Amino acid sequence: MCHECGWHALCPRCDAHMTLHQSSSQLRCHHCGTEQYKPNSCPECKSEDLLQMGFGTERIEHALTDLFPQYQVIRIDRDSTRRKGSMQKLLKEINHGKKQILIGTQMLAKGHHFPNVTLVGMLNADHGLYSSDFRASERMGQLILQVAGRAGREEKEGEVLIQTHHVDHPLFKPLLKHDYANFAKALLEERQQTELPPFTHLALLRAEAVDKTSPMIFLEQARLLLEQAKIIDLILLGPFPALMERRAGRYRAQLLIQANHRNQLQSLFAATILQLENDKAAKKVRWSLDIDPLDLM
Fold first, then answer.
1. Which of 105, 114, 135, 167 has a CA 20 to 30 Å removed from the CA of 270?
2. pTM, 2 dp
């Protein structure tokens, strides 16, 4: 970002910030793949006082290399493993190394056996506590336990450090004891009180187009059609813009349908899917129906 005028490097095709990749001096959108060269000065006010924001794996790698020059620092993420065979090469280095610091995204935490790792740090665990996705806390807990499982394997003792601004959050207490059963129990109680899956069932009707209004018009028509079915205990939420409204140059919107039983959703769409396909508004959008969606993006 520009310190002088506040300009941010935004993706021209998505409602998202570009990510700086130091090795190639490129700005890249991790949602649509758009790439630009890093500017030497602000495109708006021409100031050269540009600041790097956030802490990606590359910045962490550079910081740890400066702090611990006596250790080999290995980074495993989407960029460092892009070339064919690069993942296997890095894993071979790790298994034959002695003094190492490993940095990685979720792909480093899952399914690998590193017998020499005795200390694990998880940076900024708070994203799972406050998210628009109701499954974020569940995924955070699973990741913490997976990360913790990398430390102290075989006969060596391990230690896990979790960075958070909310050390007293109730969800952390069972995780610190490696007690996934009570962690899951707390989440299930919360889901039951808020009538979320697995106690109810969801369907997500998505629509996208190059213009902003067509998806909303189609979903408004879809809502009217679904309301005519008059199914008891059916809740329709929306339509509303997707959390990232514009992605890869297309505007996205969605309609969330909630039912107490999955057969209610099946009956509903068995009766209306052909009507949706033949709706005039459907010809102006790309749309899809997701039963039991795994994410609400």
1. 135
2. 0.74
Distance CA 262, CA 265 (A): 5
Structure tokens at 191: 């889901």
Q: What is the pLDDT of residues 120-131, one digit of tens each?
A: 888 888 877 877
Residue with tokens 């994410």: 295
Summarised one tens digit per residue, pLDDT across range 194-206 is: 999 999 999 999 9
Alpha helical stretches, state H, the chain: 57-67, 86-96, 106-109, 136-148, 172-176, 180-193, 213-227, 262-278
Task: List, in order of start, the domains of the chain with CATH numbers.
Answer: 1-53 (no CATH), 57-193 (3.40.50.300), 201-291 (3.30.70.360)
Q: What is the rounded distance in angstroms from the CA atom of residue 216 to the CA atom of residue 209? A: 10
Q: Give CA–CA dist 202/219, Å, rounded.
A: 16
